[in-house]
User: Fold this.
Amino acid sequence: MKRKLDKTGEPSAAPAEPETKTTQPEKQAAATEPSFAELGLDPRLVQAVAKQSFEKPTLVQRRAIPLALQGQDVLCKAKTGSGKTAAYVLPVLSSILKRKTTDPTPFTAGLILVPTRELADQVFKAIEQFTAFCAKDIHAAKLTENVSDAVQRSLLANVPDIVVSTPARAWHSVNSSALSLGKLQYLVLDEADLVLSYGYDEDMENISRSLPKGVQTIMMSATLSAELDTLKGIFCRNPTLLDLKEEFGAEDEKLTQFYVKCGEDDKWLVSYLIFKLQLIKGPCLIFVADIDRSYRLKLFFEQFSIRSCVLNSELPINTRIKIIEEFNRGIYDIIIASDEKSEVFGDENAEGEGEKKETKKSKSKGEEDGAEQPRKKRKNKKDEEYGVSRGIDFKNVAAVVNFDMPTSASSYTHRIGRTARAGRAGIALSFVIPKELHGKHRATTIKSTEKDETVLAKVMRQQAKLNRKLEPYNFNKSQMDAFRYRMNDALRAVTKVAIREARTRELRQELLRSETLKRYFEENPTELSHLRHDGELGRTTRQQPHLKHVPDYLLPKDGTKALETQKVGFVPFKKEGGKDRKHRKGKPKGRSFKVGGRKDPLKTFKVRRKAK
Assistant:
């Protein structure tokens, strides 16, 4: 009795049954740490897992896989990067393989619903990797491509065992009779708290009516919110709750968080110094508020030869997936992502309340917002299945920069969750515009930055509950002023016309690379020539080669370290090998000529006479 009282006394108001279920196996698993083979998975899946170099199952995998194999409904909350995808994919695959040994009849047994197309592609690739040794026995389909109904119907005509889709695409296929859920056995909701926040409430209700009785449901999420309670009441029957938030304190200690309070113009100046002088090294993810902002920052960086790529909802899904893959392979070090799905601004007294307000907004968009709001929603319907701050597996991210602060503390948590994963260290840097400085730099000011200080206060309170803190990262403004004229010169070159042309140029390149339009261009070569001609003429950004290099006279006497007013743990401002810029080995970078010598530029200069 004493042991029971001690255990139930620690959490304040948690129910007794789920708590005993989550704590007792947890201590046993921590002591034994079973391997994937001991979890009861199919041997072919274990072999595929070994090929992926997964040494031991993570906590969420040790806890969720046995419960899922027993046929229980599972509602799991775990941190991003904790291995949630394998935690639900492996038991579903193992159960389907076990069933096929006795009943080889083809039917769709598993449906995995995700809020974004990028996440759907990530889950589909995970299924392909885990079924490497049983590909003939498992057939999976992904319903996120922009294809006609006839093509989608033919894709589902082979009766896939598992379907990965967004709720809108899944319901469209069910409603058109292309997808049958009459014998469905497993339903998975990944990032379940976002499903309703993204406006899929009607689709989820329609799907629930099409499900047979006895479907096993697995829900994975990074937060526990009101949306999860709604989905739990619709799809689950007495689920086992796994709240694993307390098991990742050691990894959280490797995340260092900073904020910079400055004006809008100083935000661009500090960003230029950070990336040009390599204050932060390694793959970096920069979050901005909207699409125009992402292209403005990209063109601004191009003035200084800082390579970056843009990720936003306007790009085709194949392009977005390709950008993420190239970033994970190390081709790009900087991704500028527009976080257009950030929760609306509001009070966040409870966890997930900002997302709750977004759900209410999506539900009442036809009743309260008037006639103009539905038009906006239809116009930007392609944005409904785009999301970058949640779910996507960005690998080895060294730093997350909130160039524009999110509008809620929960969005901030999800953004910084992209770094400091898998035991690696990471940095989160946020720019905060004080209220008295908002609107002072009209050329680049946006409306959302007016609430930066309020959001920062909520973020600091939320992080304090997790035993984290945000430290100020100050710059020596007197030393930064030497670079200000370069920053202003680069900003003046990035005009609204240049931003609009950059957006159209991205889409024009996608048209040229499109396999779908390849045959059309073969039959209409003039259209292809016009498209290429427009691309050649569409470079409206003023090029300034002198901005590519930072002359030594701009740097302080003490080197780039003098730009910082305090040491906060960033990468030192020295080249590898321990040498400063002034003590480089070999000859200086500039050329030297000797008058009258072999390299005399006057002797090598040739003049061509004009033909008569």
The CA atoms of residues 463 and 469 lie 6 Å apart. The chain is about 40% helix and 10% strand. The first helix runs from residue 2 to 9.
